[in-house]
Specification:
The complex is a heterodimer of chains A (about 250) and B (about 220). Chain A is α+β, with helices and mostly antiparallel strands and about 250 residues long. Chain A folds into 2 domains: about 110 residues, Beta-grasp domain (Ubiquitin-like (UB roll), Roll), CATH 3.10.20.30; about 130 residues, Fumarate Reductase Iron-sulfur Protein, Chain B, domain 2. In chain A, about 35% of the residues lie in helices and about 10% in strands. In chain A, the strands form 2 sheets. Chain A has a 5-stranded mixed sheet with strand order 2-1-5-3-4. In chain A, strands 6-7 form a two-stranded antiparallel ribbon. Chain B is built from 9 helices and no strands. By secondary structure, chain B is mostly helical. In chain B, helix 2 packs across helix 3. The model of chain B has no long low-confidence stretch (mean pLDDT about 95). Classes of the chains: A alpha+beta (about 250), B mainly alpha (about 220). The complex binds iron/sulfur cluster and FE2/S2 (inorganic) cluster (FES). The site of iron/sulfur cluster (SF4) has 14 residues of chain A, from helix 4 and helix 5. Chain B: InterPro entries: Cytochrome_b-558, SQR/QFR_C/D. Chain B: This is Succinate dehydrogenase / fumarate reductase cytochrome b subunit. Chain B: Keywords: Membrane, Transmembrane, Transmembrane helix. Chain A: It is an enzyme of class 1 (oxidoreductase).
């Protein structure tokens, strides 16, 4: 199929950037979205032009490196997939596809479609860990009984790959879904309760410091999250935060 | 403490609590108003009580006004912060793909309701203050019914009331259930809360619209 692409090109963090038109022929339905961009880049390189820069790593939906706002939606129109797992069969011959970087003040553009998502790392560093020493004194996983429901919910929260689609989708560029997933995966387990009070306060403080917006419960994040992280996590984080704050 | 005021979650909770308070007030307001259609004498009686009871006038009324101000000021503060959080906008943003129009446009529906409150304050509150404290008129426990009905005589005012209540309905449609999520309530009762929200968001504004239209089409003949 033949596609009309409108791709955000931006030389570096300080340049202005604009949408540039490309026409790409010979796109197969079996290609992933990133493979389609690979084909475009080969063309560009062969013609002595600068290829389009975009983030990617595992290309199997597990690392959270790929991004892209595709026709106004993070990771494109498909549900529960990352851009690397989005197939071109979701598009038709002659389609126009607008490709932009994830937009948030806290995710500045580095070049073209590549944005700096290290704000997420700093939120994680503010409290997304437990201080149990696991090296050399590993305890049997079943030594502390954990209710199945909590273990499952914790596991689901832990499937967040930190891609940032929740921020990109949110009209407020809020990072609540990401942060709540990282808070929840520990909050639900006894091992995580030890630092629970400081964790939620520190992570929320860091999230606010990074300049993410405020959640207004539109639910866009949950719909666009490639891992199906639920809004229940945000409610849990709100509860955790309220009880941590009232505890002082 | 200042950290708490700046915290995104604390602000969300303030928004939720003030919103729920206003939702509760709205139901109470509706209960009194509907008597103007079904039992004008009761309407006069209750209105007189509300207008001259010290507790209502000097404690509850200031709390209500504070509730409106907090909800409005916080809403504007959040809107400004959220705008800054995406300083460079998307060229193409498909908001409808993942969230409802009402949830994305609370600021619009909210500002219309606020503008309506301006008119409403002018119509009733300013009038009351003038009647009681400035003009210093004597108590008249029978004036409320005809004063209210007369207000709805002009078509423009009735139309403005109707439009405002449609927007209030949209505001409630998202806001009521949303306030529970903000306070951390998302559990097996959530579907019931969402259903109740929808019923409330339709029934109460529709009721107010009915009252306005009823008085418009049934003027007091002198
Ligand atoms: S919550 Fe979902 S959308 Fe957000 S960072 Fe995690 S995986 Fe990505
Ligand atoms: S490249 Fe790893 S999730 Fe897409």
């Amino acid at each position: 199929m033949k596609l009309n692409l409108k791709i955000w090109r931006q030389k570096d963090a300080n340049s202005k950037g604009e949408l540039v038109d490309y026409t790409l022929d010979g796109v197969e339905g079996d290609m992933s979205f990133l493979e389609m961009l690979d084909v475009l880049n080969e063309d560009l390189i062969n013609n002595g032009k600068e290829p389009v820069h975009f983030d990617h790593d595992c290309r199997e939906g597990i690392c959270g490196t790929c991004s892209l706002q595709i026709n106004g939606e993070p990771h494109g129109p498909d549900r529960l997939v990352t851009t690397c797992q989005l197939h071109m069969r979701k598009f038709k011959d002659g389609d126009t596809i607008v490709i932009e970087p994830f937009r948030a003040t806290a995710f500045p553009v580095i070049k073209d479609l590549v944005v700096d998502r290290s704000a997420f790392d700093r939120i994680q560093q503010a409290g997304g860990y437990i201080s149990v020493n696991t090296s050399g004194n590993t305890v049997d996983a079943n030594a502390i009984p954990i209710n199945k429901h909590d273990a499952d919910d914790s596991f689901y929260a832990a499937t967040c790959i930190g891609c940032g689609a929740c921020v990109a989708a949110c009209k407020n560029a809020s990072a609540m879904l990401f942060t709540s997933a990282k808070v929840s995966q520990f909050a639900l387990l006894p091992q995580g309760r030890v630092e629970a009070t400081e964790r939620v306060q520190n992570m929320v403080r860091q999230m606010d410091l990074e300049g993410f917006g405020n959640c207004t419960n539109t639910g866009a994040c949950e719909v666009e999250c490639p891992k199906g992280i639920s809004l229940e996590n945000i409610a849990r984080m709100n509860r955790e935060y309220l009880s941590a704050t009232t505890k002082g | 403490m200042s950290g708490l005021i700046k915290s995104s979650i604390a602000r969300k909770v303030v928004m939720a609590l003030s919103g729920l308070f206003l939702v509760f007030f709205l139901a109470q307001h509706f209960t009194i108003n509907i008597t103007s259609v079904v039992a004008p004498d009761t309407f006069n009686e209750w209105s007189h009580f509300m207008g001259y009871n010290g507790l209502v006038q000097f404690i509850l009324q200031p709390i209500l006004i504070a509730g409106v101000i907090v909800h409005f000021v916080m809403g504007i503060a959040l809107e400004i912060k959220n705008n800054k959080a995406r300083a460079i906008k998307y060229k193409k943003y498909n908001g409808a793909a993942n969230a409802s129009w009402v949830s994305r446009n609370m600021i619009i529906t909210g500002l219309v309701v606020l503008a309506f409150l301006g008119l409403h304050f002018y119509d009733f509150w300013v009038h009351e203050i003038d009647y009681k404290y400035i003009a210093g008129n004597a108590e008249d426990p029978t004036r409320y019914y005809h004063e209210t009905v007369e207000k709805f005589e002009p078509f423009w005012r009735t139309a403005l009331y109707v439009v405002s209540f449609v927007l209030l309905s949209l505001h409630l449609w998202h806001g009521f259930a949303s306030s529970f999520q903000s306070m951390g309530v998302n559990n097996k009762y959530t579907p019931a809360i969402q259903t109740f929200t929808k019923i409330y968001a339709i029934v109460i504004p529709l009721g107010f619209i009915f009252i306005a239209l009823y008085h418009h089409f049934n003027p007091i003949t002198h």
